[in-house]
Amino acid sequence: MQSLFFAHVTKDVLEDICVHKIERQHSKGETIIQQGDPIKEFIYLKSGLVKLIRTTSENKDQIISFSKPFDFVSVFSVFSSEYYNYSVIAIDDSITCILDLEEVKRHALNNGHFAMDLMYRMSTATDHIIIDNMEIRKKQLKGRIAHILLYFARNIYKANNFELPVSRREIAEYIGMTVENVIRTLSEFRKDGLIKIYGKEILILNEKFLEEVSEHG
Amino acid sequence: MQSLFFAHVTKDVLEDICVHKIERQHSKGETIIQQGDPIKEFIYLKSGLVKLIRTTSENKDQIISFSKPFDFVSVFSVFSSEYYNYSVIAIDDSITCILDLEEVKRHALNNGHFAMDLMYRMSTATDHIIIDNMEIRKKQLKGRIAHILLYFARNIYKANNFELPVSRREIAEYIGMTVENVIRTLSEFRKDGLIKIYGKEILILNEKFLEEVSEHG
DNA sequence: ATTAGCTGGTGATATTTATCATGCTGCCAA
DNA sequence: TTGGCAGCATGATAAATATCACCAGCTAAT
To answer: Element (H or E) spanning B162, and its range?
Structure first.
């Protein structure tokens, strides 16, 4: 646990923090954090897969990012806001670990190494969100689809065949395009021999060319 | 200075940190931070206006955000990376204050309040970048232009007439559209009586309707 | 003074993406 | 058993956006 969590924190401190740790089970589709709720806990993902989304004023969902085990789910806002400005929803059966936020804050106050490690971890997480968003923004439809396929293959499943954990609609909400165009583009990739599709099962046949599409449209 | 900078830090500590503070002057257009440079300093903006940009693999610039005085310029990556993955460029004559990063880190280690305040400030900054990016992403051309006009009017200049600090090209790099369409849309707003334009001078005539366009296209 | 380059501007046209319509499947509840 | 609803899929068409071409004004460098 220590090596996965914090690098410079002694075991004593860790145990002290985690003594009040609670684990929660969430089944697929369950809301873990609701946008607008007060922030009282500090949460990280132990197993499963979740999405961070925000509901816009027109009541449409935008997916901000995905989080995999040992990512913080309380990624942003935790230290800068009273209320969550995003929701977290399980897209696979998941287990979260919940720490009391006040306790975490107290430890950060008293232990500089803990605070620095926390800062490092949260900063890394938000960095990725920002850079990833900029990457997606600069691409057009095909590049964005290629991007998300490679994202799941490389970052989440580390394999060229995997079961898509998200619906076509969710892909659309992540890359900011319509469902129809997501479907069409996946079909096109299939026809062009870049991938094979059986429902949610994806097999990447030509990773190199997919990479090319992701980079240069 | 104290109230603007950190809320819970005693004056002693602040003076200790700022004893090695250096001020630098940058004229409009000057590069303050170069993407790829090692991160050795902790920088905040004392006066002026700057843009954070990243240069994509196709050598095009994307504007990540703008920063105004007393924002940190070392917004992200500082505690999570060895090298800057963005550049900072002055878009007005600006003065930055430079602290030694190791010194800042040392103080964060020894002073929990300082660390927490730092975390709060950086978290707030990255939150804004993320939310703002999601806001822009969900809009289309006209909404994005309306958004940036209101952004400058409300957040930067707090007035309905102001001199645009950025070129049409820079607006395009911020909202992710082409220069031609930025120009066209501004002209359209002018023809529709929403704004007046004299070169870089902007006067917002119908803020309410501009707000409407920003929200609902 | 002359050219080159950059910004602002506009129109015509091509490309990309959204919208609308329709169908098909599987699943769940009445 | 029958709806009804959600996800996946495809085609036709409309709307949004990019691209290309061109012009004017300004400024920096030769």
So the answer is: strand B161-163
